[in-house]
Amino acid sequence: NAGVTQTPKFRVLKTGQSMTLLCAQDMNHEYMYWYRQDPGMGLRLIHYSVGEGTTAKGEVPDGYNVSRLKKQNFLLGLESAAPSQTSVYFCASSLKNTGELFFGEGSRLTVL
Amino acid sequence: KNQVEQSPQSLIILEGKNCTLQCNYTVSPFSNLRWYKQDTGRGPVSLTIMTFSENTKSNGRYTATLDADTKQSSLHITASQLSDSASYICVVRARGYALNFGKGTSLLVTP
Questions:
Q1: CB contact under 8 A, A101 and B91
Q2: Which of A15, A71, B14, B103 could make a disulfide contact with A42, Cβ separation 3.0–4.6 Å?
């Protein structure tokens, strides 16, 4: 049982490049989330999904897009990376009503 | 505005000593409060959940308390171990599913 798996774990981009972070969960959870974590800021919600085919904006959605074509996968895209998007990104999933989040190991992204 | 404030921001203690981390919140209406432990380079993992009717809950050497009247929670760690070195994050859930994160307390346990 792998839980929540994120790929890639590390990536370095140049300003203006695009990339996609992939999150996969094998717990049959309805809800999935993308967070970013920056020093002194804590975890901030970028986008989330309450089910296959649905997505919604979180606290800091600008510059990111997401898709949930399959229940087990949640993709986070950066169309034109900026240095301000240098961060550690965490994917999480949860059952509908428990509220407990199960996190992936994180993806460290550096934008030069 | 719903807010979650944690203190101290960081803490250094000697192995074997006890410590207490604080979480104050203004989230309303309150649903539950969780403490997460985040080891360096890893994702957060849930330690315990507190609901409105619960005052104290233990998970091994970790004991969480909740005072819903004053909107305060604490996480007490007994007989600390080197493996307790981590960031501890308080997350308060409002009714309707909105989650509110604290910025965390960074704990370092030294030999």
A1: yes
A2: B103
